[in-house]
Amino acid sequence: MNNKWSKLAIRSGVLVMLVSAVGGGVYLAEQKSEITEKKQVEVKDNPTDLYLQNVYGTYLKDVVPRWNELTDKRNMDYLKTKQLIGDWKDMLLSQEQTYVSLNQLLMQQVNTLEDFLKLTQQDETSEQRKSLRKLSADFTEGHQKVKETVLSILEEYKADYEVFSDGSIEYVFPQ
Is there a contact between 53 and 28 (Cβ–Cβ < 8 Å)? Predict the structure, then answer.
C-alpha cells in the first residue's frame, strides 16, 4: 500500500510542478509582450519621424525612381505611373503631421513628373524637347530643395544625420 501512495504522491508532485511551469511560462510571455508593446509605443511617439518616413521615404523610393525611369528610358507603363501620381498626391494631402514647405516642394516634384509624362506622350517637336529640358532642370532643382528642407527639419529637431555621396540621408532622432 505504501508503494501505491508514494507513486500517487510523486505523480501529484510532478503534476503540480508541470502546472507551475506552464503558469510561469504564460507569465513570462505576458511580460515580454508588455515590454514589446512599450517599445512600439516609444517608436510611434515621434510624429516627425513618421512623417519623414511616409512622405520623404515615398518620394525617394517611388517618385525619384519613376522620374529616372521616365527620363532615361521613356519605356514604362504610363497608365500605372499616372495612377501612382494620383496616389502620391492623395498621400501628401492626407498627412496628419504636415510640414507645409516640404509638402509643397514634393507636390511640385510630383506635378513636374506628371507634366513630363504628358509631354513624352506627344509627338516630338523642338518645342517639346525644349519643354522637356526645362522640366528636367526644374525637377533637379526641386530635388535639391527637397533635400535641403529635409535637412532643415532634421536640424530643427536636433536629429543626428549623415548625408551620403549618393544624396541619401540617414538620420536618428534623439530619444
Answer: no
Kindly list the domain boundaries of the chain, sorted by start residue: 1-44, 46-172
Q: From CA 141, how far away is CA 138, in angstroms rounded?
A: 5
Contact yes or no for 109/142 (Cβ under 8 A) = yes
Q: How far apart are CA 119 and CA 122, in angstroms?
A: 5
**What whole-number distance in Å separates Cα of residue 96 and Cα of residue 103?**
12
Containing 64, the helix (H) or strand (E) segment is helix 64-72
How many Å is the maximal CA-CA distance in the chain? 108
**Segment (H or E) for 136:** helix 126-156
pLDDT in tens, 61-94: 999 999 988 888 766 788 888 999 999 999 998 8
End-to-end CA distance of the chain: 68
pTM (2 d.p.): 0.70
Quick one: cell of 36? 514589446
